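Quick check before the chapter quiz. The format below is the same one you will see on the exam, so make sure you can read both the input and the output lines.
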Amino acid sequence: MIPTALLFSRYRAFREPTRLELTPLTIIIGKNGGGKSVLTRLPLILASGLASQAESPLDLTAGGVSHGARFEDLIYQRSAQPFSLGAEISESGRTLQFVTTLRHVVERHSLAVEAFELSDGGQRAVSLKAARPEDIGNPEGTFVAQFGPDQAEREVRVKIVGLFPTEIDGDADASTRLRERRSLFEGAFASPSYLGPFRSEQGALPRIPRQGVRDLGPRGERALDLVGDDLLRGDGALVRAVEDWFEGAMGGNRLKLERAGDLPRLLVHDPIRNVDVDISDTGAGFAQVFPIVVQALARRMGRITSSIVIVEQPELHLHPAAHGDIADLIGDTVGACGGQVRYICETHSEQVVTRFRRRIAEGQLPQGTVKLASVGHQSAIDDVIEPLRSIGLDALGNPDSWPVGVFNEAFDDLVLLREAAQRRLAEEPRREA
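Here is the expected output.
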């Protein structure tokens, strides 16, 4: 099954119950400090709570990223109130949704499940709530449970692993159904492929690459491992695809992956000087974009299998002319995966967003494939600021709304530039007089 929505309330900067729709490509935009990274990284922390071996409801370092120094950091205004996380997954007309309510138990310095709701096909399947305050986080505690929309409530003992109950004491059938549904969520959120905004510098690999690597690492630190494995042990298709993309998108600066004995060496051909140089000796843009290219092409070829692919600020350190090429790389990957991937891209680049809009208008990206999630959305109509607004794009790439002050800087500067020029011209005759 495929993730189709993220659900949360009182989580970080978001107080009210909120639903973030996940289309094949979800682009997160907004001003700094509004919570874009919180949303972009939410699948990582959800995946930690859905893993079958989860040791706690959430892992503050899930995906190799710090989600907070303390559990209180996850709660809106760091209050003593509970907060909720959940998700929706769908396939072949069937939809499953869960929401887990968590509370920080100060005395135990831990998070604990206070309540849990699961629906299947729009109908309530399971509802659990701690019977008494002292039952929250207590392994021996009980929950008030209701199974199905019509059954009466009863108190039960529940085993919870991470965010999801797995066993109802004395009810083997309910336990089996819970485990089956949990496994669907776990599969949908398994091992998200995440690249943060600051990627590791790439250079010659001083050791033999790992065998069968499938994870790039949050900074792309294992990207060379992945292509090196393909060079030494695979058919080289991924290597050739990466090389071809660089030659077409980076102004003829062809990337070359060569073997030096058993060790791969990553080089960039400089067409002006007609020399090959180590990628670490080129501009920062080459090293920053390399993991993004590997991530997209590896997902397209099935070397990365996660249904969730996340990249923050793919445009970082790149000339604006290359922003559109990165957008096309992501868009082509979304199309090649046939709806089996959910790409989440957080960006500050107007060029990236404009390229996606253009491809929709040209018919290369079907309408509905791309949605924008505007964080801290300020409407031009009523001046109200919404924590999150989902922006759809029509068949011509036109948005159904747009936030005030996002990507307006160049236009505003042009207006002010023209006003300044007009003032200067008006002052010239007075100076001459």
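If your answer matched, good. The chain is about 30% helix and 30% strand.
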